[in-house]
Amino acid sequence: MRQYISVLLLLIASASQASLVMKPTNDPDLIYDGHLLHGNYNAQVTHPDKILGFEIGQRMASPAQITTAIQTWAGQSDRIKVVEYARTHENRPLFAVYLSSPDNLANLDKIQADIAALADPRETNTATAKKIIKRLPATAWMAYSIHGNETSGADAALTAIYHLSASTDQNVVDLLNKVIVVIDPMMNPDGRDRFAKSLEQYRGTAPNVDDQSLLHRGDWPSGRTNHYFFDLNRDFFYLTQPETVGRVQLINRFRPQLMIDGHEMNSQDTYLMGPPRQPLNFNIAPSLQKWAVTFSQDQGAAFDQRNWRYYTGEWFENWYPGYSNYAEYRGSMHILYEQSHMAEDGVRRPEGTVQTYKESVHHQFVSTMANLQTLAKHSKQMYTDYWQDRQFVIDKESPYADRAFVILANQNIGRTQALVDLLLAQDIEVFVADKDFEVDKATNQLGQTLSDAAIPKGSIVIPNRQPEARLLSAIMEFDAQIKPQTLQDERQRILRESRSIMYDTTAWNLTMMYGLDALTVPQNLKRSLTPYQKNTNGFVAADPSGIAWVVNGNDDRSVAFAARLMEQGIQVRALDKAAEFNDKAYPRGSVVVTSTDNVGHAQLLNNVNQTAKELDLAVGTMTMGLGAGDLPDWGGRHFKRLERPQVAIISHDDLRSYDVGATWWSLDHHLGIRHSQIDKAALTRTDLRRYNVLIMPTGAKLTDAQKTALKVWVEQGGTLIAHQSSAAVMAGKDGIGSVKTLDNTLAEAEDFDIALRREWLATQDLDPSIVTMQNQLSQDLNYPWSDAPKRLKEDELKKREKWQKLFMPSGAMVAGRTDQLHWLTFGVGPTLPLLYGNLPVLMSDEKSEAVVRVGVYQAVPENEDTEKQAESTANAWYTLPPAHTIQVRMSGLLWPEAAQRIANSAYLTREKMKNGQVILFAGQPNYRGSTRGTNRLLLNAVVYGPGLGAQPTIQL
């Protein structure tokens, strides 16, 4: 019965398509006749239908079937070279399939050497470049299905591989003489396999054309993401996942002229292709924008011939450089395909027709071939444009000529090394300052221009005047430029429709994401620099003569050191105050292992050294417990005893899979300790006594019973960590604890403002006018509310709150000020960049601790009207200290209304609840695996929370 209905639907759809052809034609490829492949094929190359067991495009090919087909064809055709460029977390292979004439494939190394020479005008002159361009074939990287549940792209890739490797038609032979095509057929095998399993589970007797069915949507977390639920199409310069690392390495070596990326979108949509709309990143070469129009004209014509509907731009922009269009910043033409999602059975369309899955695959295949033909036609001119642009960016008159980025020297060696590794992976040239020097008019991350900025020895220096200037600028500049017209369009869309035109985050600067202090210097720095070389001697073993051993707490890897040792049954301590032993200074947060805590542990030093070696850490040795001066001694209260974390992540149900995955990956990648995922739906049936740390990623909606279970567990000694909207639930009207969201506190705004003023005063020097030793009762006391500006009434605050909420950012970087006496900020500086979107605004008073707040206080210069400034501060729930303003924005699009709304709110709070504690993050601390600064806060909470913030009374 199912087969009969499938045939019937196919005939209906085929007849519908055939009737729409605009003019009579004898070209079978112009009519969708139920088959994807037309022409003559080499009988020695196995037809895909025989490998798959069904007609190609009729059903989704599984990752295993795609792998089998590629490996089969590699041994049958001399037009194929297969490279396995990576393995996924689940050990599935990722392939780059090179397709071209046998002669081109035989000369691949020489061709790649020519392309590399063309990429660096410092080593290649114009005459040589012209000769290279004349002999180079065109090059294309065609990539598909980076989102595993967007399946049609990979099936189209399989179709294209067979077509190009087996067709004997002259037009294909001619194409392969001119072009080297690299097909990356399935960019996310783990996600595709997950979706394939859901198709098997939900496939019924009859075809299901209802796009709301689980057959089309899949189960949580769907097949979109990889093993750790990462969106691989946001990872192209963050390089957190093995799929991306291998792919980018090969793309960077190949430097294709064209890169396409085959996706799917809403099932009731049609087909989107390039070029994108504004905003476009200013670092994309203008010549590529010109070629985008040429390619779209040819691709559109191919669709017009078949009467297929499509559109360009509309909702897709190229501002964020972390998509697959990453290649554009290195000079490749990039095209996005977005086919309406069909799953296997097709979807009933609004006009009443049924579009089949095979038709979707056909659209992707036709797009592929159309783009390759356009490339073959224009390749030489594209190479010429590429060469001229590479000359331009290194010219002394280019906008990149007089600029350098500096990562200031610091003790967080592991994090700094990770950032440098990212830059080196992009072929970016990196240097190290070999002595101290000063620069003039440098700009810091707060946007302040410094008259004389010190560059300490050991700082990382990256001149922007180098061949990869465009990519370097895109990922390292503090602010991406945006056209005034785009800003106006954004503002008007917000006011008209309460939504943004921005497709993604508007801030991504790597130094801010990593939480490392940096400067932009308006000079092409060249002196006192040496090329960067990775330190291969980081590990220093513990000296057996010591009484205790220490690892520097400023390095993020110290947290993993503590966690792993505790898993091995070793007692560990943490310094909560800077100390000095044996003439060596250790910052707060340093991890200490003492001999007296671990008497009888036969393998103590072996375990310490092995763990430090795994993490490439230097272990300092204490031979005496007396600290220098009045600094801590080893038997005092500043050596805090830690408790082994026993961790569970609350997962599934309504939790957002991206944040679940990023948290899961962080614990695995940064800590490497055991932990569990527990189903939120089973929370009240779970024995929570097995854990002393629970992490609730964003997305949770809790029943009263679930809230009660969590509260009881916390009060018994648990550490509950909640992110973003889950934190909002904890801080809601019926939440747990005293931290509340802004909309629930406007009636008590003055109380929160007084708490804020109290925090401020606790950081200030004593006012000499306050005489604490006087005998006579003072009649003139200054209270925090005494000199405050006139406060706004509750009704006005509510109106402003509703209005300001409209303007919350898609993703901007704001300045966070941190409590430098709190254990949660170990390894974090006084100012921490925070990635802010439409997050809950958390309010903290004296009953809780605001560990990180939004905004950095700045003193108003004496020559400004401080009285006028003070009068203007009562424009929100908070007031500012006298003669001070507050700086919020660091990078990205942040409207003034949003800045005012979130200023002085809490990003991170900690509240004691009987024997336990609740830790709330307003955002996702490990966003896309790349916000390393705020991720350190999360690691501190997980590893140090059970010992430093809770009492271990839970039965374990």
From TrEMBL:
InterPro entries: Class_I_gatase-like, Peptidase_M14. Pfam families: Peptidase_M14 (PF00246). Gene3D superfamilies: 3.40.50.880, Zn peptidases (3.40.630.10). Residues 59-372 form the Peptidase M14 domain. SUPFAM superfamilies: Class I glutamine amidotransferase-like, Zn-dependent exopeptidases. Belongs to the peptidase M14 family. This is M14 family zinc carboxypeptidase.
